[in-house]
Write a sequence for this structure.
């Protein structure tokens, strides 16, 4: 009797931590349902293979050498999309040629920033699904703005607190895209339009849930006209111990958390991308000190302009707050939030 072949899925995550984590979590969910999972990733911010022995990994030449990726530009993202196209196509062709001996390729699931995947999937006649790693509310606001961008840009400083048309309760200061001098440059506008376009994809997976964003999801489904699968939040569906972090996590802060009174700790982390200046760091430092609450504060190396790490803190700060405050370079965030 011929053994039943397993179905495999190829995941194509975007390289930033906030995008990579939900894609790997989705991979864990699919693997638990019997799928073989292949992760096709960029060379930059390569996932830690040892944390995911259940996956097959394939590295793609991303063309990013020479780019400053501490804050990716539209140019670098377009270069990455163009550079990854041939490596992914060649890999998928080999997979399809070997299908009779191995697993059957069911579909490709890709982060919306990796929009080149749609071209590859269309060319190879493979079904593709988009993963939206952010909220439906954010997506809805972008879709609304890009249908009539002239209604929103440019705007005046005096309008910053005015409501955005059709997007209550958002104000002009809350526009969810990168604004320069109260407008959006044409290349940036084109980029956002591109990542909002699902192309030939047959469905969209959302890291959110219907009960939380029902009205937004219904509006977006009318716009895109494909099935939606709001199966989040992903962290609730994967093992707590599984790490998706690119940076090394300081697990000693969990022992410190264990010693604190329940529901008493302030947690401060700006994520893997945001930068602040010295003035903002010092204001945050004194705000935490004066709160008289225990706090866990992540100061990522390179996150304070002009400084490598916590040396920008006021002299004697850590001694002053003592055991009440814990400052680390990077925390196991999933474990912290579940504590």
């Amino acid at each position: 009797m011929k053994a039943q072949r397993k179905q495999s899925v190829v995941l194509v995550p975007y390289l930033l931590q906030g995008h990579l984590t939900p894609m790997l979590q989705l991979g864990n969910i699919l693997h638990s349902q019997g799928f073989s999972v292949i992760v096709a990733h960029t060379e930059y911010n390569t996932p830690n293979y040892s944390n995911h022995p259940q996956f097959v990994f394939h590295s793609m030449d991303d063309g990013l050498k020479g780019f400053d990726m501490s804050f990716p530009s539209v140019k670098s993202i377009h270069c990455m999309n163009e550079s990854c196209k041939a490596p992914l196509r060649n890999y998928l062709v080999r997979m399809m040629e070997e299908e009779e001996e191995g697993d059957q390729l069911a579909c490709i699931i890709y982060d919306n920033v990796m929009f080149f995947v749609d071209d590859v999937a269309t060319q190879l006649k493979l079904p593709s699904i988009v993963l939206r790693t952010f909220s439906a509310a954010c997506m809805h606001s972008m879709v609304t703005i890009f249908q009539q961008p002239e209604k929103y840009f440019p705007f005046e400083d005096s309008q910053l607190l005015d409501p955005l048309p059709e997007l209550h309760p958002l104000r002009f200061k809350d526009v969810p895209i990168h604004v320069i001098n109260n407008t959006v440059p044409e290349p940036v506008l084109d980029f956002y339009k591109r990542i909002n376009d699902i192309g030939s994809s047959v469905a969209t997976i959302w890291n959110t849930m219907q009960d939380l964003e029902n009205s937004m999801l219904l509006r977006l489904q009318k716009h895109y006209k494909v099935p939606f699968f709001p199966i989040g939040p992903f962290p609730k569906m994967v093992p707590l111990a599984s790490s998706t972090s690119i940076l090394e996590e300081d697990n000693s802060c969990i022992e410190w958390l264990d010693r604190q009174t329940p529901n008493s700790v302030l947690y401060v982390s700006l994520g893997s991308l945001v930068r602040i200046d010295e003035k903002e760091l010092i204001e945050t430092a004194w705000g935490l000190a004066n709160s008289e609450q225990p706090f866990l504060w992540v100061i990522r190396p390179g996150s304070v302009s002009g400084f490598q790490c916590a040396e920008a803190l006021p002299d004697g700060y850590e001694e002053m707050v003592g055991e009440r405050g814990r400052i680390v370079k990077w925390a196991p965030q999933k474990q912290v939030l579940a504590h």
Summary: Residues 248 and 264 are 26 Å apart (CA to CA). DSSP finds ten helices and ten strands in the chain.
